Structure formats: structure tokens, C-alpha cells
Amino acid sequence: MALGVPVLILPSISSFAGIIGAFAIVVWLLSVFQGFMQNMAYGELASRYPNAPGLPGFAQAVFRGKRGVNEYGPGKFLGGLSAWCYWFAWNPVLSIFALLIGSYLVSLIPAFTDLAAQYAWFEKVLSLCVGAVIYTVLILINLKGVGGGAKAGYLLAALSLIPLTIISFAAFFSGKFDITNITTNWFPTDWSWNFHGVILFFGVMALAQWSACAWETAAIYAPQYKKPRKDIPKALFGCGIVCIFTYFIVQFACTGAMGVDGIAQHANDPMLYLARESLGNIGAIISIIMLLAAMVPIIQTALLGSSNAMASMAEEGNLPKILGKTNKHNVPIVAMIVISAFNMIMIVLGDSSASILAASALGYVVANIIALFSYVKAYQDRKKEASTQNPEEIFKAPKGWVFVALGFGLLQVLFYLAGIMVINVESYGGINTFIGVIIILCFIPLWLWAMWLSKRSDARKKAAGAASS
């Protein structure tokens, strides 16, 4: 499930180069390192709360109070907000990559190129058709549970790594790579490390973590591992090493072969241009078709992650129960359908994949803040309570990791939130920030509605009990 994550670099190759120049290469490395730090904490949470479904489940379990008491207080709201923001972070991946696939198809197929030039609406309609087909197929694949999706994911994960690697290395062997494209363009000409520059840097880091830290999926599926205590670190380090390699080599190859200005000229499909220049038309067609196939597993990862988040919120009473309805295989089918419909609307409304990503990254920042602080709270709680779990089932992050989690949580509160706001306003217009904030705030009326439904249900049960007695 996590091996589709390297493909998340695709919507950000050009935007990062435009904002921070060739230094984007270093940003990706820093962000994957941040992923190592955060995901170790999430791995421990996964093993300590095996019945909590993923990152949103941990936060809800930690903040809801002792012994699963159904409290309608700020702790329950905070846990629910984390899940909602995590849902908002993963959910738009479906529309982002439907738009990206549509853009690549228009550039790859001459007939589509002509139609897009003639009709401004063609690419949008194509993306809608792509989204409808992919979402439907993935829902059908996953109807019998995560196992079927995982089996399909093995092949598609290989397809995601092979074309990224081939296209990137082809730039070196074809002679297109020029190191001066990097060394002379480390930063934009007007870049300055003043207060604004520092905030902008942290904004780019906030965008980067949406992609390069997203392999927390290797941690959140940990309760399903045979030996969590041993298998969690193996999964984390394995995925982390793959991410370090792919995020570095893709941005390094694109910047070295095309330069910052060249990437800007092919903002929608830099990898397609790089493939054509390095592999020729035939090689480009083969590799890009593989790359398009590689976008499917990350859409599946997003569909599973966001539907599980929505289902966990419904199960915890933070959203109406209907959104957590599952089929006989325990698959949150209602959430999957709602999310697919939501993303069809996002395709219609979104200007570009990068602009949707920037709004979505705001939700990911908030989700990580609450999740990291939930690790700190869980650490304090476990010092007071004896664990009933088998030690073989518990993975423990290294000693003192609570301070690492606290540090990254404070970093995101103090700098990432401000940075992502600045990036949204300056690079994509204030409307992105507005949309992101509105979607996050939509949780408040939904949560109040869910609380009203829960209280009404409790009152009916009490009344029925009193009548029977």
C-alpha cells in the first residue's frame, strides 16, 4: 500500500522548482527524513492501538478518554478533527491524479492534443471520464477487503517504481543531464533568507510532507502484520529507503536535464518531456504508459485511507453512522462511494492538480499536529497504566522519541501552518486557503449533528430500558 507513495512527487516537480529552485532536491531529502521521525511514532501508536483504524483512529482513541467512554467534550472533538483533516489530506489524491492522468493523455496522444487545443473543456471532460472509470474499478477490486487491493497493488507498485527510475536514469545516459542546471539555480534570483523566505521555505516543507511523509501507511497497517514488533521497523525503513531514492533521483534528474526554466515550460507533464528527450518517442510512450498505470496504486491508497478515516469517524460517533456502513467483508462501501462522488466534483472545480494539492496539504498539517501530540499524550498515559498487550505485539520507538514527536508537532504549529498559508495565497491565490479552511470548518456542523444523533440514540436506549424494567 505504501509503495505507491513515490508517485506523489509528480504533481509537485514543477511547482517546487518554481518556488524554491533546484533546492527542491534538498527539500525532498529533508522531508523524507521528517517522515522517518514521525512514522516511528505512528508505528508505535499502531501497535498499541491495534483496533484503531489508522492514523485518524489513533488520535480518536487517545483523546476520547479512558476505556472508550463516549464523551461529548473537547477531547472527542479534537480526535475527530484529526481524522477529518487526515481524510481531507488523502481524499483529493483521487481528483489530483485523475487531472494529472488527463493532462498526460492530452500531451501523449496527438488526437487528444488537437481536441484540447480546439475545445477548452476537453481535458476536463477527459479527466472526469478517467476518474469515473478508475474509481469504479477500484471500488470493485476492494469489495472483498484490503487483501484483494494489496494483491493488485504488488504489480502496480512495481510499475510505479520502474518508469520513474528508467526515465530518471535515462537523463544521465542520454547526455541530457547538465549539473550546472542545478548549481547555478539553487534558488530563484530574488530569493532571500529573510523572515518571508524562511516562512516560504517551511511552506514548501509543508507541501513536501504531503508527498514524502505519506508512507505512514506502512505504519498504520501494522496491526495486520504477523509480528508487529519486528515487522514495523522493517516496513518503515524499507519504504523510507525507497522514498529517499525516488524523491531525490526524480527531482535531481528533471532539474539537471531540463533546468528550472525548462521545468516551468512543461509544468503539467515534465516527466513526459524528459522521457521524450531521453528515450525517444517509442521509449517515451512505453514508459509513460507504465507511469500512468503507476498512478493507479496511489489512487487506491488514497481511496482506502480516506474511506477508512471516514468510517472510523462514523464508528467513533464523530460523523453520522451511515457514513461508516460496511458490507459483509467489513469494507466501508458507503464512504468509498461518497468519496468518489466528492472527487468528481473536485475535478470539475479544480484549476490544476497542484492547486488542489496545496489546499489539501493544509489538512495534512493539522492532522499531523494532532497525531503527534496524541503520541505525546499516549506516552504519558502508558506511564500511568500497565499494558495488557503481549510484548511481542508492541513496537516501541527508541527511548526519548516522545521529545522528537513533540518537537515536530511544535514545528508544524509554529511554522508549517503559517508557511502553507503563505504558499497557498502567493502561488495559487487566496481562494485555495479559503477552500481549505472552509472544508476543515465543515467538520464542526457535521460533528454537532453526529453528537445530536448519538445523544438522541442514548436517550432512546435509556427510555427503552426503563420501560422494559
Question: Can you walk through the features of this model?
Answer:
By secondary structure, the protein is an all-alpha fold. The chain is about 75% helix and about 0% strand. It contains 18 helices and no strands. The protein has helices at about 15-20, 25-50, 55-65, 75-90, 95-110, 110-120, 120-140, 145-175, 180-185, 195-210, 215-220, 230-265, 270-315, 335-350, 355-385, 400-430, 430-440, 445-469. The longest helix is centred in the middle third of the chain and has 46 residues, at about 270-315.
SSE class: mainly alpha
What percentage of residues falls in helices of 4 or more residues?
Answer: over 70%
The overall strand count is 0
Envelope shape:
globular
Radius of gyration: 22 Å
| Terminal residue distance | 51 Å
H and E order? HHHHHHHHHHHHHHHHHH
Give the rounded overall mean pLDDT.
Answer: 79
The largest sheet, given as strand count, sense and whether it forms a barrel, is: none
Strand content bin: under 5%
Stretches where pLDDT is under 50 for at least 5 consecutive residues are: none
Q: Number of DSSP helices? A: 18
As an assembly, this protein is single chain
